[in-house]
Threonine synthase
Amino acid sequence: MQYISTRGSAPALDFEGVTLAGLASDGGLYVPQEWPRFTEAEIAGLAGLLYPELAARIMTPFVGSALSADELRELCTAAYGRFAHDAVTPLKQFDEQQWLLELFHGPTLAFKDVALQLLGRLFETFLSRREAHLTIVGATSGDTGSAAIDAVAGRDKIDIFMLHPKGRVSDVQRRQMTTVLAPNVHNIAIDGSFDDAQASVKRMFNDPAMASSKGGRFRIGAVNSINWARLMAQVVYYFAAALQLGAPHRKVAFSVPTGNFGDVFAGYVAARMGLPIERLIVATNVNDILHRALANGDYSAGTVTPTAAPSMDIQVSSNFERLLFDCGGRDGATMAKQMHGFETTKAMQLTNAQREGAAGLFTSARADADDMARAMRWASEAAGDIIDPHTAIGLHAARQSGIAADIPVVTLATAHPAKFPDAVERATGTRPSLPPRVGDLFAREERFDELSGDYDALAAYVAERATESD
Ligand SMILES: Cc1ncc(COP(=O)(O)O)c(C=O)c1O
Ligand SMILES: N[C@@H](CCOP(=O)(O)O)C(=O)O
């Protein structure tokens, strides 16, 4: 399998190459040259497999010859062996139509673990082969950071620099990052929003003084969903849920709390692979650029508004570029022009082809603070379940989606409620407690540095601490 950039001018790479590269050297995102497709009979044959085996089968066409079948199976077994539930991503029924896919049983209590537990192991495998060193630079609005740090802490071929927006993540989220004191982990609180952090990360990939792909000193790597391997691993749970609900003989809809558009794009990939998905519902909070883009073609970023669902406080959704590229005819030169325009003005209008292509599968909804609190209360009162604010946004969108009653609607439960105890308690009166697997989080020492958000200060900070590329 070869991967091409959405902006058309970076070299095509194999799976090992894209995993280590993260962002393409032309500033675009890597996507498979063509979508692998499973027949109906092949999908039916996946029913009943244990999660690690299912994961290996779904990922095989994307991995190609970069790993042997045994290597891939072993990595999946090790990655999903760290989950606290035997099903890895269990499905729970709310009522006749509404279901919840619990993605938070990994070590750091959010859906990010599903991909990052695998990605950490992929890095180690590929870096050992090359005897190379990787400098990961990542941005987090709360969950990617802790999941990535858990996945790579203590690995000697990797340094990780993780930027979070100061004061805009929950205390649990911050401590899950800053109490990991391994020498290869560097947490940085920046002034600004997640979007500012993400922009600095992308800039470093293109910095000739820093990135070895541009002649610089460090092999810069990505743990954010700009890295294709993240999305590939997230495709698996769409199959896992749909198979349990009767796929391929029955269609299923998914409602996905969305920020950087990675999780819901993984659902799009599942559909392109042949999984019969009725609808993908893009659920946003008041940072609703994606809702506006899908509803009327207006992709223009305002300032980020802090909310009680902080991980979705994002206005520039990296992976939307992958969708626009695929729906818009896979024309890299046009995409590059469109994205450069957006980077300059922070606004763009979707083309008709992009809008029509997206409309075939996606709908969207926006939830404000009241909608979110109401959905948390409904889950608690009607179904006896405590859900987190991000999941509540997905559930709100699912319940008002108007999907035909005989089609199951699965909301992705992206985080454990105990990551956001204040918001959950305000809405439901119940304060969720942390599961024992996170241990004595509030008794541990924290370590992080603070930076202004200025790119040059960040580059100097990384350059002083990172290991030079091979
Ligand atoms: C808990 C939670 N829910 C939803 C999202 C949104 O997912 P995505 O950015 O893949 O759209 C995130 C972060 O990205 C998250 O941490
Ligand atoms: N919600 C994320 C931010 C988006 O990051 P990505 O890694 O999915 O691109 C977070 O919690 O950090």
